[in-house]
Amino acid sequence: MQIDFTSLLQEQLSAPFRLALEVRAPWEHGAGIATRPLLSLAPRGDGHPVLVLPLLLGSDLTMQPLRQVLRKQGYAATGWGLGVNLGPRSGTFDACLQRLRDLNLEHGRKVSLVGWSLGGLYARAMALKAPELVRQVISLGTPLRGPVAPAELWRIVQRTSGQPMGLPEEIGPLDQSLPVPASALFSRSDGIVPWRHSLEPTGPQAENIEIISSHFGLGAHPLALYAIADRLAQPEDRWRPFDRTGFSEWLYPRQGRF
Predict the structure, then answer these.
(1) How does residue 30 score in pLDDT terms, banded at 50, 70 and 90?
(2) Per-domain residue ranges for the chain?
(3) Who contacts 169 (Cβ-Cβ below 8 Å, separation ≥6)?
(4) Residue 124 needs a FRET pair 20 to 30 A away by CA distance; which of 6, 112, 116, 152 works?
(5) What is the pLDDT of residues 68-105, one digit of tens each?
(6) pLDDT per residue over 118-138, tens digit each?
(7) Regarding the domain with residue range 5-257, which homologous superfamily does it belong to in the CATH classification?
């Protein structure tokens, strides 16, 4: 991977400021609760299953507010059922894949995957491994790339801890274009994952949606919740990019800024 040293320097210099901005997260969670009535303006769902995957050290409890919003919008939203996300330990990905298969069998429909941070890497890996079961992938502040690729990071952790870590190598790079529609929500002021590392690769069914948010507030931010609901409401096999015209133009920056 070719390293952009200018961008890398900018990320390093801005890191302390971005990290300090993570104090916004509680306010963003509160705003997400306060504005839930406004989410009724988002398109309603069609009842298809949605698997919600937590960030590192998160759990189904962490993701419960998001699942509640999605259920209210008309989706069969469910958690991953694996407790606290401690990274891709041995057996974790296989359990996620089985959860995907079970949901597909239970509902008889493809499953949408919503993953926050590390959860987005699981979602991408599942879409690459079993695209016939996945309707679309929505990631939030997911570290797709960087000076140290996710696969290399797991190898470092494995050497340090002695515990098997990582996602199946046969899947290939997790920052490759997905064979299903993919939407990446990111924030330029993310204090944990530099925003360039979260961008979805260019593709006919790929897009990036900017949210002005902290990393730990992204999964509860009102604008993120609306964008997720909007993306999930699209008819299957008729994907279109997020519409930034009208009122949305004032709230969601256009992709030309990337």
Answers:
(1) very high
(2) 5-257
(3) 151
(4) 6
(5) 999 999 999 999 999 999 989 889 999 999 999 999 99
(6) 999 999 999 999 999 999 999
(7) Alpha/Beta hydrolase fold, catalytic domain (3.40.50.1820)
- How far, CA to CA in Å, does 255 sit from each of 118, 185, 188, 241? 24, 12, 12, 11
pTM for the model stands at 0.91
Q: Which residues, listed in sequence order, are joined to residue 111 by a DSSP beta bridge? A: 134
Question: CA 237, 51, 45, 185 torsion: positive or negative?
Answer: negative
Residue count of the chain:
258
Question: What are the structure tokens assigned to 164, written together?
Answer: 């098997």
- What DSSP character marks residue 86? -
The Cα–Cα gap between 254 and 109 comes to 32
Cα–Cα dist 129/35, whole Å: 37
255: tokens are 């992709």
